[in-house]
Amino acid sequence: MFVTGASRGIGAAIAADLNKRGYRVVGTSRTTTTPDVEGVSFVHCDVRDAQSVATAAAQAREILGEIDIVVNCAGIMNDGLLLTQTHEAVQDVLDTNLTGSINVARETVPDMMGNKWGRLVFVSSIVALWGSPGQVNYAASKSGLIGLARSLAWELGRAGITSNVVLPGLVETDMIADLSEARRKEIISQTPLRRTGRPEEVAALVAYLVSEDAGFITGSSIPIGGGVGMGV
Description:
By secondary structure, the protein is an alpha/beta fold.
């Protein structure tokens, strides 16, 4: 199993959870420092760079053999109103969150096609459906993952490969550490369960989607945000 962005936050929770469930997990990290996630092997990978992805996948195969399950969780935020943002600030988010997932899928899907079985899961965000001021680049990149996953569901279904998206709401990770208290309260007030989520809750959903039991689920976009954005 190959989990991108596994060094922290939701990605780390997913990698750790899958390891506890008995999967052999290779995670990727954009930094050269080896993260400390129990039971998870790490390779360096900058998902924006197709060659870096190819190298990381080759290293993962040395540990795992063929790659049959991929969870695309690598992502960044760089918030700001569109008219105040530089081209670079916009492009880096798109390249990491969307193009990076395309790079990873393109590199790993051949293994799954050879086996006539595979699982692709893309970690998006409820913002993909909801929109958010100051997050044009982030919302666009996360919306793109829905189109990517659905298109791959059509392309790969006959090979027994599923492709799905999970859309977390406000989850307690360091990615939201800079969120103002006012904005936090505003989002929670619009969340029927009136709380933030835990990374472990997202991990449990991903674990189901990569299991044999989820073999008839593909092309789905599943919100996990306590009901926030319901009906969008």
